[in-house]
Amino acid sequence: MSAATTSTATIMCADARLSEHVHRLADVVRSCGARVVSSGSDSTVVAFESASAAVSASVELQQTLAGWMPALPIRIGLCTGDVEWTDGVCSGAPLRIAADLFARARPGQILVNNVVRWLAGNAAFTHMGFVDAEGDEASIEMFAVEWQPLAAAGVDHVAIQHRVLPLPAALATTPRQRLVGRESEWAELGEAWKRSESGTLEVVLIGGEAGAGKTRLAAEFARHCHDTGATVLLGTCDAELALPYQPWVHALDHLLRSLPDFGRPALSSRDLADLLVLLPQLERMLPGLPRPPASDPETERYLLFTAVDRVLSIAAHTTPMVILLDDLHWAGRQTLELLRHLVRSGSAAHLMIIATFRDSAGDHAEAFAECLVELQRSECVSRIRLGGLDVAGVEQYVAGALGQELDGDLRMLAAAATERSGGNAFFLGELWRHLIHHGVVVRQDDRWIVRRDISSVGAPDSVKEVVGSRMARLSRRARRPLELAAVAGQRVESRVLSLAT
C-alpha cells in the first residue's frame, strides 16, 4: 500500500439515477479534467482541482440536462476541503458534506458549502441557512448556485456548449508582460479573423527567426478570439518527437473530449470511427464504436482527411474556430498533407488556422519547404513576416516591465537594448532580466533608474546556451565563418569574411 497524500479538492455529488445523467456527467468530467471518485446506483462522486471548475461544470451539467431532459433535473452537492488519497481511493469530510448537500438539494438545485462560495468567484449564490451535517460538530453554512436554463437566457444550446470549450492548458495562463510592438501584425490577423467569421477558411502563416515572438503573438490573438466566444484549439510540433499528425492529434483530442457526447449526434459513429487512426483512445471511451473496414493506405488516408474536415466543419459551423499550429517547420509529412487537404477543400468555413514557423532555410525540411510553396498559392492563405521589435516597441516593453514612464536615461537604455538584442523578443526578455540582476537598472525610492552602462555586462547565460546549442548542430567548416563574424562585429563584408576563412 502506498503512502497516503493529502490535498485540497472540491467534491461533487450528483444524481446518477438514469444512464443519461451518468453519460452527461461523464462528458463534463472529461472536459474539465476531473476525477471520478465513486459511482453508485443513485449518485456519482467526482473530485475537481478547483472550486471554480466544479461550479462551472455543475452549471453546465444542469443547463445541458435542462435542454435535453427538462422533466428530469438533477441534484448536485459541492464541498471544498482537504481530502486524503490512498491507492486512488479518496476519503475525508468533504465527501460526507457533499453527499449531505446533495441529499438536501431539490431537483435542479446546486447546493455548496461556504468555502466553495468563497473560492468560486464565477457565479452568484443565494444563502440557504445553516444545517447540521452528519459526523461534523460544527454547522454547515449552505448556499445555492444561481443558474438559468439556456432557453431562458435566449441563447442557443448547441452554440453555448461550443463557446464554453476551455482553452488548451498551454494557452490558459496569461503572461505577466503585455504584448508590445506588434500593431500592424495584429491588424493583419484581425482582418483574417473577420473574413473567417463571415464564413470562409483563413490560414495565416507567421514566420520569423527563433525567438522573434511568433508563438506569443499567435497565442495572444487566439486568447483574444476565445474571449469573444471562439473555440480555440492548439497543436504543437516537436523537433525530437515527430509523430504522425502530432499537432492534429493534440487539437482534435481537446475538441472531442470537450464537446458533449463527443459531438454526437452531429458527428456520426462513422465520422468518429474514421478518426481512430489519429485518436485510438476513442475506442476505449466509446464502447461499440465500429472499426472502419480495412482498405488500401490511400483510401484510408482519404477517409481520415475527410473525417477531420467534417469534424472541423461541424464544430466551426456553430461557433467560429481558431486552430494554432505551433512550430510547423518541425511537422512531419503527414501533418503537412492534412493541412494541404483542408486548404484545398476549403469546406471548413468559419475556421482560422494560424501556423508559426521559423523562416530560416536551415530549419526547413524538404516536405515543409514544398508545403510552404503550395500553401502560398491559395487565396485563403496569407503570410506575416515577424521581424525584431523597433525602439518604440522596446520602450513599450521596458515601460511595461517597470510600470512607469521612461525618463531620458531609460530611453537611452532601451535604444541600447534594441541594438544589442536586434529586437529579438526572446533575447530582449533575457537581456532585461540580466540587466536587473546585475544592477544596471535599480529601484530608488518609488522609481526605477539607470545605475550602470549596459556595456558593463555581457550576454545572458540563457542566450549563450541557445546560441551554443544551435552552433553545435553545425559542422566545423560551417562554424568557422560564424566565429569570425562574431569577432568582427555586427556588420562585416562578405569579401572580408571570405579572405579570413
Task: Walk me through what this model shows.
The chain is an alpha/beta fold and 501 residues long. It has 20 helices and 15 strands. The strands form three sheets. Strands 1, 2, 3, 4, 5, 6, 7 and 8 form an eight-stranded mixed beta sheet that branches. It has a five-stranded parallel beta sheet with strand order 10-11-12-9-13. Strands 14-15 form a two-stranded antiparallel ribbon. Strand 4 (76-86) and strand 5 form a beta hairpin. The protein is globular and about 85 Å long.
What is the tally of helical segments?
A: 20
Low-confidence stretches: 152-163
Class by SSE composition: alpha/beta
Report the sheet with the most strands, covering strand number, pairing sense and barrel closure: 8 strands, mixed
Which word captures the global form? Answer: globular
Termini separation: 67 Å
Instruction: Evaluate the radius of gyration.
Output: 27 Å
Mean pLDDT over the residues:
80
Question: What's the total number of strands?
Answer: 15
Task: Determine the strand fraction and express it as a percent band.
Answer: 15-25%
Helix content: 40-55%
